Amino acid sequence: MTDDDLIAAARAAADKAYAPYSQFPVGAALRFADGSVVTGANIENASYGLALCAETVAVAKAMVDGVRGGLEAVAVTGPGREPLTPCGRCRQVLNELAALGGTDPEVLCVGPNDVRRTRLSALLPDAFGPASLD
């Protein structure tokens, strides 16, 4: 799967978002070393603090499916004029999954007209993860 395919999967996931309060549908797609892709969309709740971000939903789906390593790339997209980056909570959740496989995935922050590429370690320097508990 190419990066363009990964971005398309994230955009398709955003179409399934449940965002009645913010009107800000977000989609995420995770690509693993074995070629599999897991997607997620944000799910809002009337009790705002209980909302789930797209990246968190995708990571939870991957974990439920037994995927514990090999995270290579993440694409995140949503409305707005600028490329969308994962929030702080999602950076931490993505870091947990990446750490299980010892990877530093590329994060494709997708906007309407461009894609900003970075590494998860650049978005979350000095991250707390499983190794921090040893």
Write the layout of secondary structure elements.
Layout: H1 3-14, E1 27-32, E2 37-41, H2 54-64, E3 71-77, H3 88-101, E4 106-110, E5 115-119, H4 120-123
Parallel strand pairs: 3-4
Antiparallel strand pairs: 1-2, 1-3, 4-5
Helix pairs in contact: 2-3
Radius of gyration: 14 Å
Mean pLDDT: 96
Assembly classification = single chain
Morphology call? globular
Low-confidence stretches: none
What fraction of residues sit in β-strands?
15-25%
Largest sheet: 5 strands, mixed
Series of H and E elements: HEEHEHEEH
Portion in helices: 25-40%
Number of helices: 4
Structural class: alpha+beta
Beta strands, count: 5
Name a few traits of the molecule:
single chain, 134 residues, 5-stranded mixed β-sheet, 21% strand, globular
Q: How would you characterize this protein structure?
A:
- The chain is an alpha+beta fold.
- Helix content is 31%, strand content 21%.
- The protein has 4 helices and 5 strands.
- The chain has helices spanning 3-14, 54-64, 88-101, 120-123, and strands at residues 27-32, 37-41, 71-77, 106-110, 115-119.
- The protein has a 5-stranded mixed sheet.
- The N and C termini lie far apart (36 Å).
Short description:
This protein has 134 residues and is α+β, with helices and mostly antiparallel strands.
